[in-house]
Predict the structure.
Amino acid sequence: MNTEEFEKLQAQAYAEVLEFFSHDVREVDRWLVERVRGLNYMTPKEALQSEEGISKLRTLIGRLQHGIPT
């Protein structure tokens, strides 16, 4: 995956997070730096730094949107 594709993937994942938090940027910024059990205690911000992390983050958001325990 080249840099442009990776940046698009990051942007898409961030947009999904923003959507989940009803576009509350302050809440998103706070959540991005918290360790999250559903991400094996990494922060969402850390997850956004790798393709694998983004995949885990998007899966987590999907689970949360559908009320599936993480």
